[in-house]
Amino acid sequence: MIISKISHGLGNQLFQYAIARSMALKQNTSLYLDLRYYNHTYATDTFRSFKLNKFNINFDLLDESPALIYLSKSTKLFPNRSFPPFFKLVRDKQSTFEPEVLSAKSMFTYLSGFWQTEKYFRDIKETLQKELTLKSVETEQFKVYKKQIQAENCPVSLHIRRGDYVNNTQFNNQFGFIGLDYYRNAIKFFKEKSPDCKFFVFSDDLEWVKENLNSGQDFIFVENTGENSDLEDLMLMRACHHHIIANSSFSWWGAWLNPKEDKIVIAPARWYNNLPDLNTNDLVPENWIRL
User: Fold this and answer.
1) Considering Cα of 70, then 72, then 73, then 79, what sign does the dihedral take?
2) Taking the CA atoms of the chain, what radius of gyration do you get in angstroms?
3) pTM, 2 dp
4) Half-sphere exposure (CA, 13 Å, Cβ side) for 97?
5) Dihedral of the alpha carbons of 15, 261, 54, 73, in degrees to the nearest 10
6) Is 33 helix (H, G, I), strand (E, B) or coil?
7) Mind listing the pLDDT tens digit of every residue in the chain (291 residues)?
8) CB burial class (10 A; 0-12, 13-18, 19+) of residue 204?
9) How many helices (H) and strands (E) does the chain have?
10) Residue 220 forms beta bridges with which residues?
């Protein structure tokens, strides 16, 4: 059995699901998700809600199995919180790919971390791209934007994340807004390559973007509303042909879920604001362009 601790926002949830799904498939075993993170609020974290249940995926919940919760809590008594061959806790210790994680096997294998590299699940890419579609009926506003994207010869998603990257001290110190120069250079790259590109802009601070990004007829600002607007944004990003992502797991997934073989994805060369020595080579796929 594979148990994955799910936490934080949608992008992180997708990474945490993807590695667990990959391991469960390889080991031909069941997949459980631990959602206890969402039972509390955290002063240093932006409030998020669990969203994986909106996708066409199958899993069981640890929360609905008192015996498994008791087992998980009881491992605090064990060295390294493991008791082979019955229970093994596997933590994400680094920013780089740890291949030995995928060979971890126990009666109960518990995954805790962010697992932010496709190398943990790249071999089931087609499976994930098929499964990670929405269950719910598309809203009218979603259909309008999707039709606009499909009508363009070269639709490019452009994601600007500000929000907690600007307003939350911890996130600002760790990540931070990557600046408009990065976006201007990425826009220039696509315009030189395909002058007819249309940029579909996604952001948690669209008013600021409209005021500060020199835009025109080549820009469409996507303004989904409602409790599932983030899910609709993700699916619309995915529907674009090419991508300019932020230093954010959210737009990382919007680009990665796009199945087009000839897509071009531009990602920031510097992902973390105050961690210049942190190796992020495994975070960004090798065929993406870093500016």
Assistant:
1) positive
2) 20
3) 0.90
4) 15
5) -20
6) strand
7) 999 999 999 999 999 999 999 999 999 999 999 999 998 876 666 677 999 999 999 999 987 777 677 666 666 655 566 667 678 889 998 778 999 999 998 888 999 999 999 999 999 999 999 999 999 878 999 999 999 999 999 999 999 988 555 444 444 445 567 889 999 999 999 999 999 999 999 998 999 999 998 778 899 999 999 889 999 999 999 999 999 999 999 999 999 999 999 999 999 998 877 666 678 889 999 999 999
8) buried
9) 10, 11
10) 200
**Inter-CA distances, 59 with 35, 138, 220, Å:** 12, 23, 37
Alpha-carbon distance 271 to 280, whole Å? 7
2, 24 contact by CB (below 8 A) = yes
Give first-to-last CA distance, the chain, whole Å: 41
| Paired tokens of 27 | 């080991």
- Label residues 269-286 b or e (16+ Cβ within 10 Å = b): ebbbbeeeeeebebbbee
Contacts of residue 66, Cβ cutoff 8 Å, sequence gap at least 6: none
Task: State phi, psi for 191 to the nearest 5 degrees.
Answer: -65, -35
